[in-house]
Amino acid sequence: xxxxxxxxxxxxxxxxxxxxxxxxxxxxxxxxxxxxxxxxxxxxxxxxxxxxxxxxxxxxxxxxxxxxxxxxxxxxxxxxxxxxxxxxxxxxxxxxxxxxxxxxxxxxxxxxxxxxxxxxxxxxxxxxxxxxxxxxxxxxxxxxxxxxxxxxxxxxxxxxxxxxxxxxxxxxxxxxxxxxxxxxxxxx
Length: 188
Fold this sequence. Notes:
Blueprint: H1 2-24, H2 28-34, H3 37-49, H4 54-80, H5 85-110, H6 120-130, E1 131-133, E2 138-140, H7 143-156, H8 160-178, H9 182-186
Antiparallel strand pairs: 1-2
Helix pairs in contact: 1-2, 1-4, 3-4, 3-5, 3-6, 3-7, 4-5, 6-7, 6-8
């Protein structure tokens, strides 16, 4: 019974978070940050990394995104009578994959051997969201996402050697994302 109450609280809390996110769309700074993928990567990573088990990480992350989408799009439909089905399909697909990604993040934070390289995946994604990379240039496009990258460094930190290795690997992951067709999925 207690587990059911916790799951219901996650769902209700995330529905309220979805409504709050829609309300923040009209606030200049927050509307900009909450429409980009970086904040959602950070929130999902924090939920998964600090869950007690990998299963809880998967369930909590999925419930968070499910409730958030329900709240966001129900409130959008209430306000405007219509919502973007393309956006809803995209974020719905992201929500379906979050349990699998949450398990990866949980093992990146809590696994012994895997903590040496798995954190590079969400960190590399966050770095690719913050940087503009070209053949002869490197530019910080979004300072907020770069700060979130530093927060991810803190979340996954174990020791200096591990963090150094993960940062190097995350730079490599960023290169793969930026220089392959994967980039088009993340710029939505």
